[in-house]
Amino acid sequence: MSLLQKFAHIRTGLDQLTANGxxxxxxxxxxxxxxxxxxxDGRKILLLGTNNYLGLTFDPACVEASSRAVRMAGTxxxxxxxxxxxxxxxxxxxxxxxxxxxxxxxxxxxTGYQANLGLIATLASQGDxxxxxxxSHASIxxxxxxxxxxVIRFRHNDPEDLAHRLRRLKDRPGDxxxxxxxxxxxxxxxxxxxxxxxxxxxxxxxLIVDEAHSxxxxxxxxxxxxxxxxxxxxxxxxxxxxxKSLGAVGGFATSDxxxxxxxxxxxxxxxxxxxxxPAVVASVIASLGRISTDNSLRARVLASCRRLYFGLExxxxxxxxxxxxxxxxxxxxxxxAVQFWNRLIDExxxxxxxxxxxxxxxxxxxxxxxxxxxxxxxxxxxVSVMTAVGSELGVIDARRPRRSPRxxxxxxxx
Amino acid sequence: MTYNGRDVEAxxxxxxxxxxxxxxxxxxxxxIAGGLxxxxxxxxxxxxxxxxRFDVSIPLDRIATVQTVAELSSAVEALVKGPR
Lengths: 414, 84
What we know:
The structure holds 2 protein chains of 2 kinds. By secondary structure, chain A is of the alpha/beta class. Chain A is globular. Mean pLDDT of chain A is 95; it is low at 407-414. Chain A has 15 helices and 14 strands. Chain A has helices at 8-18, 60-73, 81-84, 88-101, 112-123, 138-146, 159-168, 193-203, 225-228, 268-271, 278-293, 296-315, 334-346, 376-392, 407-413, and strands at residues 31-34, 37-40, 43-47, 105-109, 129-133, 150-154, 176-181, 206-210, 237-241, 251-255, 326-331, 349-350, 352-354, 364-369. In chain A, a hairpin with a 2-residue loop joins strand 2 (37-40) and strand 3. Chain B is an all-alpha fold. Helices cover 60% and strands 0% of the residues of chain B. Chain B contains 5 helices and no strands. The chains are: A alpha/beta, B mainly alpha. The A-B interface holds A 134, 144-145, 150-153, 155, 165, 168-170, 172, 356-357, 359-362 and B 39-42, 44-45, 48, 55-57, 59-61, 83.
């Protein structure tokens, strides 16, 4: 038997998925025209599934900073920070992140995945207890596997269940470390962080919050759910990514705990990988500067996501629990989800197809992500295309639109 | 509450039967992953039901070592009796 034989079931699944349509894992854009448009098969397509929340990938200041950096400092750092040295901009970006969050120190990682992997697996060691939300991102699950702590899942967004599981530990020794996310990536629902922070205080645990999808989106200053929920003082570590609202790639962790900098010499996902290249670091310094001083992007993306969320809800789609920049609609089964996704591309709208086991509760989802760069006309077009395709495939009844009690919010937000 | 091994196993089988398609039979030798058509997330959700039923937390590393219903039953039984 071939070594690769164990992956044969993947081929079977892929063949079923692509029998009557495109391969969602190999979609190839010929040209990216802007944060909201690309060329696919020679035609313009509306990008509504790229997590480009603040539309900063083509921001002139970020592009200029990035170009200048590549000319000044080269295309790559060719090594890790601890073995091959830190560039001035690595240290500057860490300082800017710490200032942005009002915390003592920050560490940057080469990807957001590595930030979670490194931070969580290093902090939670033998004898500790790691409590993770059941719907955590793969990077948190992988960190859990890498950690030598005992890992316990609590029910998604359920502070009572978390408290119950912490109480079950009774007086067993070891630190308790809770991991939650600001906004969850599949349904766009935010964590009940105030309640989780209260459990953390009561039970004497540490709290890590991954703000990957909420940085720049939630909170008056854009610091994410911790700020919006008013619990920043209770959150011991904030993790985040540069690859979504900040328009580049990379990740970070920031903390106010004294001694956090020693993690640089303990955290293998930081130590044994090449550091971020100058062009990326420079564009993130620029984009972080922009979101620190300009609230208009945040206001725009929030208005657009409400427009999409309530537009789809009124059309009769079953949407996620709250309007955030991730707007997912539930499909009745796999086949209609696959067809729906293919038909949207035919009609020039790119969204994400999200299927089990990548989804919570084995849901079949069509997942959109909204950008502040989307115009109202683009959002309206997306709603009308999705409504037409939804009626065509019988996943909504267009003659009987769902009446939303919250629809007024959509109008006032637009 | 106290359970003996057969209680635990019978309850696990009941809980699993409620989650798998009709016609699929579950016994002590059934392999949980691959044997029942449940994906990895569905298995972890089933484990949560089990945790609630027996009021124990089954750590992920412990779940990783379990293949059959009988092995899962022994793991739960050990946790019910006290922390390892």
